[in-house]
Amino acid sequence: MKRDHLPGTILTFALGAGIGAAAALLFAPHTGEELRGNIAEGVSNGVDQARRTGKDLRQRAQNFVGLAKDCVHDAMETGDKAYSQAKNA
Question: Greatest CA separation found in the chain?
Answer without folding.
Answer: 86
